[in-house]
Design a protein that fits this description.
Layout: H1 8-32, H2 34-58, H3 62-91
Helix pairs in contact: 1-2
Length: 92
């Protein structure tokens, strides 16, 4: 069961996340009126796109994840180097 794409823990997490999003959207609509409805719509769009990405990436294999982590580490190192260069320039 752990190898299935949608195991029980993933379904429980999904239910909790979408319950929180639903409560937030309803609270925004009630509290802020029309502007809250617009903001709630934006929140729903962001939530749907983010969660679809989570579901899509759930099936990724371990080597794919390792490659992504390596790429992120390289980017972080590049950013750290740039920040250090900027810090030295500002101190000079």
């Amino acid at each position: 069961m752990n190898n299935s794409k949608y195991n029980a823990s993933f379904i429980i997490i999904t239910a909790i996340v979408w319950a929180a999003v639903t409560i937030s959207v309803v609270a925004m609509a009630i509290y802020a009126g029309v502007t809250g409805i617009v903001f709630a719509f934006v929140v729903l769009i962001v939530a749907v796109t983010s969660w679809s990405r989570v579901v899509r990436e759930k099936g990724r294999t371990e080597p794919d994840v390792d490659k992504a982590i390596d790429a992120l580490n390289k980017q972080i190192q590049l950013l750290s180097d740039k920040i250090e260069e900027l810090r030295k320039e500002l101190q000079a």
